[in-house]
Amino acid sequence: MAWSWRLEKTDGRTVGMSEETFSTQADAESWLGENWRGLRADTVDTVTLLDGEAVVYGMSLHEPGDPG
Fold first, then answer.
1. Which of 5, 22, 47, 64 is 20 to 30 A from 56, alpha carbon to alpha carbon?
2. CA 41 vs CA 29, 35, 44, 51, 56: distances in Å
3. Taking Cα atoms as reference points, which of 4, 25, 49, 3 lies closest to residue 61?
4. DSSP state of 11
5. Is residue 18 scored above 90 in pLDDT?
C-alpha cells in the first residue's frame, strides 16, 4: 500500500493531500516532520495518515490550547 497524508482544516474539511506518497509509514512520518511548519503556514490545521484508503491516525499541527 501507499502511505499519504490528508490535509485538513480544524472542522474536518479536506484541503488537499500530500503531494507525494510513501512506501513506508516511517517515510511518511519523516516527511511530515520536515514539512509541518510549512503546512501550518499554508493554513492546514490537522493531518490524517492514510495507508491506502485506511485511516491510521490524525493529529493537529498546532500547539495544545492553540485553536489554529
1. 64
2. 18, 10, 7, 25, 24
3. 49
4. T
5. yes
In which band, very low, low, confident or very high, does the pLDDT at 63 lie, cut at 50, 70 and 90?
A: confident
- Mean residue pLDDT of the chain comes to 93
Of 4, 31, 8, 34, give the one whose Cα is nearest residue 18: 4
Vertex 31 angle, CA 26 and 34, to 5°: 125
In this structure, what are the phi and psi dihedrals at residue 44, rounded to the nearest 5 degrees?
-85, 130
What pLDDT shows up at residue 68?
A: 59
* pTM as predicted: 0.89
Using CA atoms in the order 47, 1, 24, 10, what is the torsion angle rounded to 10 degrees?
0
